[in-house]
Design brief:
Blueprint (H helix, E strand, L loop, with lengths): L5 H8 L5 E4 L9 H8 L7 E8 L3 E8 L6 H8 L4 E3 L2 H8 L17 E4 L8 E7 L2 E5 L1 H8 L2 E3 L4
Parallel strand pairs: 3-5, 5-8
Antiparallel strand pairs: 1-7, 2-3, 2-4, 6-7
Amino acid sequence: MASKTNAVRLVQQAGIPCREAFYEFDPHDLNGNHAAAAIGMPAEEVFKTLVARGERTGINVFCIPVCFELDLKKAARAAGDKNMVMIPVKELLGLTGYIRGGCSPVGMKKKYPTFIDETCQLYEEIAVSAGARGHQMLLPPEDLAALVDAKFADLIQ
């Protein structure tokens, strides 16, 4: 079994109930739908973590179900900005400390404004990356939001 990631440690230190799920991943196919199928959860309950840059607000973090795309207009509105663009993948590690396919909303290098799609509130627990490829953590969405100081918003197309 893989060792605990920093994200999992932070969740556990906060006293948040958390389960871990591990799966085989293909570095050439990091599609979140594969992760959902691999851990046996509906894609609507597995959330990917995306990082975007606002014209005025700078870096923002968005968590949305893996089966949807981020609506950049809705993302900008949620962040109180006019425009939002996805950051280039090459900037991800430097900004967050995470690589593509293993980006967690928990334990980033800096605390960025974070938004979770409001559909998460339909579920008792959701899965998000535990900070490594092939490693998910399942936890209550309200607890996740409280830990990372996230707001719930309509973010998907």
